[in-house]
């Protein structure tokens, strides 16, 4: 790796005691900060009915982010396409492409990004039609006359389309379409190796790519000391425990010192599995964890995430991550 390729997935955390307005202000600041640090992309994920996540109106958030940045690529990680019609997404991302040409990514997933009740409220579509939706979306961007009309905005726009997933389904689709593939190992790492192997084995070159291109997710909770890193990681750990134990969703909680150590063995084991693609510690710890993930997967890109309560600590964590990736690059030169 002559030069590190690292990006940021921001879930636009809404803090306990905070507000949506504050979350969006923090997102704009973080995007500008990571642009200055040399991150390649800034992505926002579509989730619904989750009080701790402020990125539901993904394209609107990205318009906000674009106005506060100059060069970093911005996009969805991802848009849950069955929640929309392909035409709606072509228009939204065609608009973003017109506003910020050459900077727009469109990561696509087929999960609802919500529970059953929210899916019903969204009139969630048939996830089995996801491949056909992706093809229709490509047709709108290409101005394909077989679509019957021209998408305006949309036709002629050229967002970089990705297929995202946490299983072999998305891997197979990305391979068949010759598109880049992103795996959600930051929260669902179980099928990471199998999915990447499937994608590479089945990949068919396209007008977009002549070879496979893989991005993998990794949580980073980095600080100047191991102790501080463990503390700032506890907010996301609390979220994962709440989700897996059937508790009502809430805003991102404040960190708790000794949280992980105080959990029962069963819950610690659960967290270890969910967060196996994570770096918690100093710059050296972060560098070691990222190097191991790159060695394991051969990833072309790493997308870093991390729900951290204190905004200054979050900025510092991603700055340390950038230092760690730069150190890895220098070691490879």
Q: Could you describe the 3D structure shown?
A:
By secondary structure, the chain is of the alpha/beta class. The radius of gyration is 19 Å and the shape is globular. It has a single domain, classed as Alpha-Beta Barrel (TIM Barrel). Strand 5, helix 6 and strand 6 form a beta-alpha-beta unit. The model has no long low-confidence stretch (mean pLDDT 95). Helix content is 44%, strand content 15%. The longest helix is centred in the C-terminal third of the chain and has 22 residues. It has an 8-stranded parallel β-barrel with strand order 1-2-3-4-5-6-7-9, surrounded by 8 helices.
Number of strands: 9
- How many structural domains? 1
How large is the count of helical segments? Answer: 11
What value does the average pLDDT take?
Answer: 95
Strand content: 15-25%
Tell me the name of the CATH homologous superfamily. Luciferase-like domain
Distance between the termini: 8 Å
Q: Report Rg.
A: 19 Å
Q: What overall geometry do the principal axes of the alpha carbons give?
A: globular
Which secondary-structure class do the elements indicate? alpha/beta
CATH fold-type name: TIM Barrel
Low-confidence parts: none
Percent of residues in helices comes to: 40-55%
Instruction: Enumerate the strands of the largest sheet in spatial order, edge to edge or round the barrel.
Output: 1-2-3-4-5-6-7-9
CATH class: Alpha Beta
H-E string: EHEHEHEHHEHEHEHHEHEH
């Amino acid at each position: 790796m002559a030069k590190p390729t690292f990006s940021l997935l921001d879930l636009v955390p809404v803090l306990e005691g905070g507000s949506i307005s504050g979350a969006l202000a923090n997102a704009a600041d973080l995007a500008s900060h990571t642009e200055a640090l040399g991150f390649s992309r800034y992505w926002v994920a579509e989730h619904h009915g989750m009080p701790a996540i402020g990125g539901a109106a993904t394209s609107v958030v990205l318009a906000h982010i674009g106005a506060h940045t100059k060069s970093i690529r911005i996009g969805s990680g991802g848009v849950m396409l069955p929640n929309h019609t392909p035409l709606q997404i072509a228009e939204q991302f065609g608009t973003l492409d017109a506003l910020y040409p050459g900077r727009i990514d469109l990561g696509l997933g087929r999960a609802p990004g919500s529970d059953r009740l929210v899916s019903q409220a969204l009139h969630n579509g048939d996830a089995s039609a996801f491949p056909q939706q992706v093809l229709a979306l490509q047709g709108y961007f290409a101005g394909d006359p077989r679509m019957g009309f021209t998408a305006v905005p949309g036709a002629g726009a050229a967002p970089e389309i990705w297929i995202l997933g946490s299983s072999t389904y998305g891997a197979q689709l990305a391979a068949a379409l010759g598109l880049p593939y992103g795996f959600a190992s930051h929260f669902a790492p179980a099928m990471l190796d199998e999915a990447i192997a499937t994608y590479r084995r089945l990949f068919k070159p396209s007008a977009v790519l002549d070879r496979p291109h893989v991005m993998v997710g990794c949580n980073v909770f980095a600080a100047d000391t191991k102790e501080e890193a463990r503390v700032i990681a506890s907010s996301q750990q609390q979220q994962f425990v709440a989700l897996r134990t059937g508790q009502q969703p809430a805003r991102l909680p404040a960190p708790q010192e000794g949280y992980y150590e105080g959990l029962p063995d069963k819950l610690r084991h659960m967290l270890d599995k969910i967060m196996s693609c994570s770096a918690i510690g100093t710059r050296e710890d972060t560098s070691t964890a990222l190097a191991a993930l790159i060695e394991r997967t051969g990833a072309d890109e790493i997308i870093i995430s991390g729900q951290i309560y204190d905004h200054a600590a979050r900025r510092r964590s991603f700055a340390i991550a950038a230092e760690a990736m730069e150190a890895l690059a220098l070691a490879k030169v």
